[in-house]
Amino acid sequence: MMTPILSERDLDAAPGQSWATRLTARARRGWLVLRRHRVILFVTMALCLLAGVIFILMSTPDYRATASVEVDDIPAGAAGAVSTPRTGSNNIEALMQTQLEVLRSRALGEAVAKDLALVGTPSFLRAMGAKQATGVAGRGNQRQVELDRVVALLRDNLEVDLPGKSRVLRISFVSPDPGLSARVANSYADSLIRADLKRGFESGVQARRFLLGELDGARRDLARAERELAVYAGREGTETGADALPSDGSIATRLAQLNAFRAQALADRIAAQKAWESARRASAETLPEVLDNGAMQTLMTERAQARAALMEQRQFRKDAHPEMREARARLAALDDQAQDMANRIRASLKERYDVAVHGETQLAAEIANLERQAQTAQGRDVQLGIYKRSVDTYRMLHDSLLQRYRDMASQAGFQAGRIQPLDRAAVPTEPFSPRIGLTLLLASIGGVLLGLLLVAARHIFDDAVTSADTLAERVGLPLLGAVPVTGDNPQPPEIFAPIAASLLLASAAGLPRSILVTSAQEGEGKSLTLHALALALGRMGKRVLVIDGDMRRPVQHSLFRQVPVRGISEVLTGQTSAAEAIMDSGVPGVFLLPCGAVPPNPAELLATSALDSLLDAVRDEYDTVLIDAPPILGLGDTPLLAARVQTSLLVVEWGRNHHGGLRAAVEQLRQAGGTLIGAILTKQQGRAMEYDYHRGG
């Protein structure tokens, strides 16, 4: 029994295989593809190497000269200047990128052209391999056109390198003349340094002008502030010197004194008020002030004596007695005097109370007046302080700007630039390009890649079958044999003897009982192949029945040189039996069931159960039944036949079936239920087999 060859898709989908096995299988298939198309790979590599050699021979040698400069983030100041800390890495990168763009600028290119006098001399254009510039309407005069051309050549051949994160710029120029390359590279470095110095000088001039303007403004602001301070101090009558005392100092002292007096006046008023309240409610004679008064005490003593004398005389005399009247008159006078003195004392208490109240009121009014004066003085001092601070601020700004201007003026003409020269460009002794080794290496790599690309494209887009390997790769079928080109003549039976022998091992029971022979497209030689295969099997002593199932273009009766009377179409329609329609082919062991009448729609006949009945009727009478089927693509007859036979055999023309036609035919046959045992390669024009001992059979 023949073992079917799996396609690439079948190998990928095969269960139980590890990734290493699948990778090995893919590598083996890739190696076979490269081995088969090795001529394409070798020719492509040779052509690419030849192109590289031609490029080297035809290229003009170019020389590259390199000068280097150092770029500092801060310019070197004058002697004794205080150094400024370096900026961060981001600012350094921005500075280096800025200098890089300056090198590539048109202005610097024009400076180099002027420095080397490249405009107006054709030697530079000849050295660069460029043509002489001619004037163009609308673009200026001839010199401007030449300048534009020279600057364009300078910028196109300039190379600037920033090695790593250093502060070094490598300036290179490439040209066919080594001396010119060195001169241009050094001129670029010198022009960059001069441009940096010029920018530094111009920026210093602009800075001094700016500082001078700011200094004049600060001077005017300081004069205005001092004038406003003097006017305000003169209007308010205050001093503006450093020794001037605050205007509210005396007011605060006086206010503290008045507050102390007010406290004493308050205590006096409370005491006078208590004394007056007591005198107003109590009897005048019982007042402490009255009792403590010496004159009042004397008067009261006299009154007591007069009253005692009156009481004594009343015991001896009557009230009408003159002495009694005199005694009473004297007592009444003393009473009037005592009352009058008590009233005067009470009035003095009231007057003292009124005086205390009046004094307290006056102190409160004076304190309120002083507080208002203190608030006014405080506001005046605040405003005066504002004027003083304004004067101090403008004076500080003026002094700072003045000192800065003096420093810049003292350093003018001594300031160094940011860019310092490192290495001068030397005249190169060896050409920079072309690089022979690198060019040949790139040509070799390009040839390999292009060759692999062409091989892959040939493998992907070319479905032509020319060997057993390509047949297995395209559709996963084993190749049973290959036959040479014979035109439309019948194939020699001896060529098909090995193929017929291999069919005896196609199944476990030996030769399959029914075999369908078809092709993907017409004209591939399927009918001739079936005819020769039937003759080879007949020579082996097998009884073979050939059924011409191609009812659209039947040819088997012509190959056997028979004239059919009935055929398979009559058998399927019930007009005759199989035994009556089968005829002797004239070859021992080979019998023929021709097509008969060509039906209008063969697919309808093949779809009936009559075909199954026919195959059942003839299966036991013959060793095998060979059925000639129509091409697969474009017709529906072959899938109907393939579903009813034991095996199918595909006939493939050598070098045909491009663009997936063969794959589509095999897929269609398999989807219909057909079992393909292999293929026969017809019309061979070269080697049909590429046997490899390492391929595994």
TrEMBL record:
The keyword Glycosyltransferase does not apply. It catalyses: L-tyrosyl-[protein] + ATP = O-phospho-L-tyrosyl-[protein] + ADP + H(+). Gene3D superfamilies: P-loop containing nucleotide triphosphate hydrolases. It is found in: Cell inner membrane. Residues 208-235, 324-380 form a coiled coil. It is a multi-pass membrane protein. It comes from the Bacteria. Its EC number is 2.7.10.2. It is an enzyme of class 2 (transferase). Its main location: membrane. Keywords: ATP-binding, Cell inner membrane, Cell membrane, Coiled coil, Kinase, Membrane, Nucleotide-binding, Transferase, Transmembrane, Transmembrane helix, Tyrosine-protein kinase. Residues 515-638 form the AAA domain. The chain crosses the membrane at residues 39-58. Residues 33-116 form the Polysaccharide chain length determinant N-terminal domain. Belongs to the CpsD/CapB family. NCBIfam families: eps_fam. This is non-specific protein-tyrosine kinase. It comes from Sphingobium xenophagum.
